[in-house]
């Protein structure tokens, strides 16, 4: 809706009037789509001031530390819902009725197995490959196995692909782990919950049954809820950009996984745990803080700061609680958690972090929980990807419903002007 106007005076032109669009929440947005025809582009590397799309899925108020999925606050969802219910809400926009939820759960549960031939695909990877590399490759390859649902213009095909991705991602993720250990793959068990089944596929072996601990199952479910979606972050924008060309859903999700892998994004949970291990003792914290503040040192405090949150990340608050529950259940006194708590305390009182509004983010605690569960750090981002898949699909679908327009940014060119070519090489 546009009820306000903004005026821009382009070089050599009279003023151009632009619509100011108003969302239901959040900042107004100046519609600059017509500017190109006035001979100028806008310049915004990293999209710090650019709304790349219109969306009804997730809202973040970074100053207030608010995160809403389809209007529902994340802390309420994390406390009173389940990952599958949140998935339904993200995908369909409304809460499911008991019957709708039962049908949804049954469909997701019935599609957890993957094509048997995919198991052989794994054997092309080295056992010591990073599981994110394997996940990315195998997810992209799913298009070669499920090509009966690749017509992106057909809403039913998109729905089938969404179910396949949501159902099979835990199976593929757990297979990445089993493959790295050299253990046989464990098939899904459809009588278990989404999170329980994932833990089963991760930890049981043909010679030993894994009994799912309900506290760990709930913690895993919460981790999945807290990572399910996060508006137009780097990986979601990547999925939208890849999808804007009409690319198939498996390729788009593989692109999202690739983007998520970076340490500034989903890779931060793995990097955060490595950092805590490196800090090792509380006495070493001041040295690491000094390095984080030093502009000549590339070191940053992993698990701190966020492009959007300039307040406590609401997901970190829930994650912190879950972290304590898990350690209590397992009777563990984790030295790393003590280092983490001290680091958090010192950083929150340090003027450098206060002035820049750098607070702990979701990745600060998730690594400690996953480590306590016995999950190696190389799998942390894989679990993030598994959880985020539903958010990626919701955005990809929304983009198709709204009518796709290929993403094609322009640039500020600062290279050579035209020059004639004569080869330096002897001919
Ligand atoms: N440690 C030390 N200094 C920091 C940190 C940090 N973690 N994060 C930001 N800063 C400083 C930065 O040096 C800059 O200082 P100055 O103004 O003096 O130049 C200022 O804070 C603003 O930083 P920025 O790089 O302009 O902020 P950004 O919005 O581009 O970056 C971020 C956001 C998340 C990439 C960054 O905070 C970071 O690298 N954090 C560590 C990695 C991390 O935990 N990432 C997970 C994000 S949450 C999960 C997810 O979205 O995937």
TrEMBL record:
It catalyses: oxaloacetate + acetyl-CoA + H2O = citrate + CoA + H(+). The active site is at residues 306, 363. One of its GO terms (biological process) is tricarboxylic acid cycle. One of its GO terms (cellular component) is cytoplasm. GO terms for molecular function: citrate synthase activity. The keyword Transferase applies. Keywords: Transferase, Tricarboxylic acid cycle. Pathway: Carbohydrate metabolism; tricarboxylic acid cycle; isocitrate from oxaloacetate: step 1/2. The keyword Transferase applies. Belongs to the citrate synthase family. This is Citrate synthase. It comes from Shimwellia blattae (strain ATCC 29907 / DSM 4481 / JCM 1650 / NBRC 105725 / CDC 9005-74) (Escherichia blattae).
